[in-house]
Amino acid sequence: MEAMSKKWFSLFFIVSVVLFQVLATFKGGNTLGTASADPNTFSSPTQAEVLGVYFTPPAGAAQAIVKAIDGSSSEVLVQAYGFTHNAIAQAVIRAYQRGVKVSVLLDQKSDHTNRYVVDLFNNAQITMRQDGKHAIAHNKVMLIDGSIVITGSFNFTNSAETRNAENFLILKSSTLATRYKEEWLKHWAHGV
Fold it and tell me: Most buried of 16, 98, 117, 184, CB within 10 angstroms?
């Protein structure tokens, strides 16, 4: 049943993107795709492969994030409001220990709640910064190897895994990953 739901969601997503492209073409507007002069709009369609669609409850969805990180070979960039999930943190550390370039950007105001993971990353000597420029730095994004984007409402926390109603997508698109990385770099630049 779950596999069927994922297939239907993937089909719905693809049909929605194509329909959006067609309608925008007739109206002369911008569509989802590569960045245009306005960083919040796009000018050509992105071909994103949906690698996974996950919801909590039930628990267990975080294993998909762990698997994606464990499959990394060159770079893992993290941008998170909350990060307390030990298995995800350990996957990040394993990636770093394999020689993957890892950088973690956390919300500065959540430092006390993220302390366990911050200490783990500090002990592993993973490069970290904290984003304190905003009311809250509420992004929940991982970028892997310049082509994988993980994003959704799912904070990388135990509560997101076991108690909250959450969602996240794992998408494969170098164009989408590039756009997310541009945004990640903006926040990294003003992080401390």
Answer: 117
